[in-house]
Design a protein that fits this description.
The complex is a heterodimer.
Chain A: H1 5-13, H2 18-52, H3 70-80, E1 85-90, E2 95-99, H4 114-126, H5 140-143, H6 146-152, E3 157-162, E4 169-179, E5 182-192, H7 194-243, H8 262-310, H9 318-351, E6 355-358, H10 359-364, E7 375-378, E8 385-388, H11 390-407, E9 414-421, E10 424-432, H12 465-475, E11 479-484, E12 490-498
Helix pairs in contact in A: 1-7, 2-7, 4-7, 7-8, 8-9, 9-12, 11-12
Chain B: E1 4-8, H1 12-24, E2 28-32, H2 35-44, E3 49-52, H3 62-73, E4 79-83, H4 88-96, E5 101-104, H5 109-127, E6 135-138, E7 141-144, E8 149-152, E9 155-157, H6 161-172, E10 177-179, H7 180-186, H8 193-210, E11 217-220, E12 224-227
Parallel strand pairs in B: 1-2, 1-3, 3-4, 4-5
Antiparallel strand pairs in B: 6-7, 7-8, 8-9, 10-12, 11-12
Classes of the chains: A alpha+beta, B alpha/beta.
Amino acid sequence: MRLTLRAQVVLVALVLTVIPLVGYVHVKQMERLLREGQEQALLATARAIATALHDRPQLLELRAGEPASGEMALILRSLARAESRIWIVDRDQRLLALVGDLKKRAGTEEPPDLLTRFVHPVAALVLERPTEDFDDSLPEAEIGGSVAASALQGVPARRWRQSPDSRAVILSASHPVWSGDDVVAAVVAEETTHATRSAYNRAMEQVIGLTLIAFVAGALALLLFASRISTRLVRLRDEAEAAIDLQGRVRKPLAGSAARDEIGDLSRSFSTVLARLGEYNRYLEAMAGRLSHELRTPIAVVRSSLENLRLQLLPAEAGVYLARANDGLKRLDTILTRMSEATRLESLVREHPRERFDARDVVRGAALAHPGKRFEIDVPEATVWLRGAPELYAQMLDKLVANAVDFATGDEPIRIRLEPRGADAALTVSNRGPRLPQSMAGKLFESMVSVRARESGAEPHLGLGLYIVRLIAEFHGGTAQALDREDGSGVVIKITTPLNSDPGS
Amino acid sequence: MARTVAIVEDDAAIRANYADILKKHGYQVSAYGDRKSATAGFRTRLPDLALLDIGLGDEPDGGFTLCRELRAMSAALPIIFLTARDSDFDLVSGLRMGADDYLTKDAGMPQLLARISALFRRADLLREPPAAEEVLERGPLRLDMKRFHASWRDAPVDLTLTEFWLVHSLARYPGHVKDRESLMRDAHIVVDDSTITSHVKRIRRKFQAVDGAFNVIDSVYGLGYRWNG
């Protein structure tokens, strides 16, 4: 599976999820503290009330629902202001008084800040929002419940419980009311967890908001960075690929980036490598020309010496050696001629004028030079106009045919086919014979590359024929390709050159 | 009196070998290894024919300079470039300097001797009053086989010796396709196909300079050329 750089960075960015996690843990911790604080506060409230009611016999005269009098009324009224519900129960578990309200009075909610408002919809999905719409009745069971009972035993207690409809959590704390050494009643203070819950929610919303911002900003920054690197790498790759053609030749040098980082370095070293490769290729391509030039002088020495020898009076057996030397010289000549042919062509195609010609005329004559071989020539009915030089096209075809003749096995005729394909003319020369060697794929059209097995005594093969083919194909604005036949029974060399549709040019 | 052939060649072995062969063929030879001694020698006595190498020692174009100097001294002196270079550029430059022909060093002695004797024959005839002419006429083409002089519609066409032989080879049997092999044989050259191609191209251009409508030399792709006159 291909994992792009961008995808990898996104994966790395997942590390950032630790930020919300830390935030969550922190808020949880805070909630725990808040709840503890609330418990302590509520317990303190209960204790304070219980202390206020110590040794007050009027207390026991109170009855829930009936108005109190005197000092008791004063105390109860002041209690009612607290944001909690307070009830008092006596030893017989009769409710003596019930003041305050679990529900919050409206208008105390502080206005949400910008961030909270922004995060609200998201947070709402995960956070439980406290509601004021819950059943705040005091169930009968609670009056005789464990919290009150514990206080009546003289031990303060606290408890978390659900509201009867389970829509709110209620915290209750109790404290005994002493009269002398006896517990006469128990004060129970109750509160919902709404305040803590709200604080918790607010904190949670802030954490979510902040981490979301941090996460998004961090991820975006990373993504941008990765995109930039990836774009630069892709551009470098494309440039490098475009710089070298299928035959491994340097098409155009790489500019080399000016960036002062590793990718810039890479680009620059690519550029250097390509430049060197280009030089080397040029060196190789010029080699044939230089060699033929350098070899001419010593060969002329040998030849003229032999010619002088021939004019001497020589013993009979010298004739044999003279003939052998001449033979060797002739072979050297063939090599030189081939080499210089390629070199001459290189300079020829640089300035050769181009004309419009019908490729069919050239192709029809292809077989003439090889009278002993069978050919199957297939040209279309309509003219195939090309722009270039018919002599050079003929020379190219001649090389292709010579190549096919050399590699052909069996009696199957060599197939030469010219056909228009879209905006191009495709010329294929195909012969039955061995497949192309895999290792040489794409190199066949280079100078001095030959796939022929060495055969002693045979004509020298310098691997310049297909190089010449390539030069001429390129002169015609086209390309040369060597392919195996689809059924593997032989080889097809295909020359694709653009058609010339404009008679005026 | 034996004719003098001057050889200017910087490679001592080739120089000596060529001098020996030419001497054996009855020529008097003066051999020079560099441009200075050659110029000095030519000032004293002009040879009857000059064989020049293009690169002379450390002067890559010394032969060209020498050719210009020789031409200035004598308009009729036959000059042949004999060189290891074979690019079209060198060839054209050499011929523009006024050389009569151009051979690469891998051409054998027979090719060189054929040229030398042909050029001497022509030089002789130019000096003598016009006698019996040996002329090949093909329509507007007229080839003077002794003076190696070609004309088209009575206008002279300035061909080199090699080019003249090529035209003659083609025009002798109009309508017949001459393949490259026999063209080379007739023109006393051993070269590759693309050299023949550029020779023919140059011939066409020279005729077209005289007559823009010249289109008598046909290319028969894959085989050779044909005179269509």
